[in-house]
Amino acid sequence: MAENKKPIIKNSHDLAQFKPNKRKELVIRGLNALMDVKDADFYFFKGERHRIIGGLSEAISYYKKRDYEKAREAFKQAIRSNPDYARAHYGLGLVYHELERYNESIGAFRQALLLDSEDAQSYYSLGITYELVGEYQKAIDNFEKAVQLQSDYGKAFHHLGMNYQKLEKYPEAVENLEKAVNFLPDSASEIYYIIGMIYRKMENNEDAAIESFKKATQKNPQHADAFFYLGWLYNKKGNYEKTVEAYQEVIRINPDYTYIHYNLGWAYGELEKYQEAVNSFKEAVKQNPEDADFHYGLGWTYSQLKDYEKAVESFKQVIRIQPNYIFAHYSLGMIYLVQRDKNAALNEYKILKDLDQDTADKLFNMIYK
Q1: One-character DSSP codes across 299-316
Q2: Which candidate in 168, 201, 245, 262 could, as Cys together with 284 as Cys, close a disulfide (CB 3.0–4.6 Å)?
Q3: What pLDDT is stored for residue 16 in this prediction?
Q4: What is the DSSP code (8-state) at residue 109?
Q5: If residue 44 lies in a helix (H) or strand (E), which one and from where to where?
């Protein structure tokens, strides 16, 4: 519809700029042209055009109100009036998309493209629908055509990247997502986060992933997931100071973030900041008292502080929740040895024999070294 209005607006503008005698000349020329048209035909086609446009406007109105059944009928009526009207087929495709009738949506978009093969928006919408039904290569083919026709089509670049990711073509995914960032500044944080997640899956790209997550947090300082994976990667590289900084940012944003206090506890443990580690593991246990791993982390940290009574209490909580927790039995056995309770340590060995022979042998060798 916008394309149909452009010439009308342009002609009105041009007419206003002409001098009075030029305007008169145009009016006479227009009247002479009308004399060559049969009145009945002229007014019929003029009325038909307005009827089609009116019907399409009605369909769009229903669509915006999310009354998709009425919108569907209105778009179909517009197509009945003019089967060659590409925008009506496009609109029908959008309605079928909202109704989750994807095969019909694909058919409507393809018909729109048969009538107007230069419409980037139709290629984009067709690509989105193929993406939804899991036809990722077909989605890519259509997004590629969209960006060929419209080189600044940020959303098409974004979905190109996402579909290449689905096909595990990671370099192509990153290339297109980086292009998308240039045209979608409001989505830059989330796109950089996705790029970081892709780099995580690629071998020897931890540094690139870190840079992407850093960009995500710079664009959006409230992006808890980006800070979490930033900390996770720093931890993997052994940079525990940076790990702690990133995890603290997660807690600033969302103190209830899953596993954050637990992960922070282990990072403090690596830095031998055991009291800080205790505080983190205690917070983790407070949030989820039935998680055996949380109790184990707390017990391990108490053992590093040589607070063996509290360590034993924590390890017993682990075993209460998960009786076959191998490392809890081993750690208990080691603490009993420190406390010179050889019999209690031997009992843990007996349990370990049925769980993991290698770990049982290690404890046995410590008991009888």
Answers
A1: HHHHHHTT-HHHHHHHHH
A2: 262
A3: 33
A4: H
A5: helix 39-64
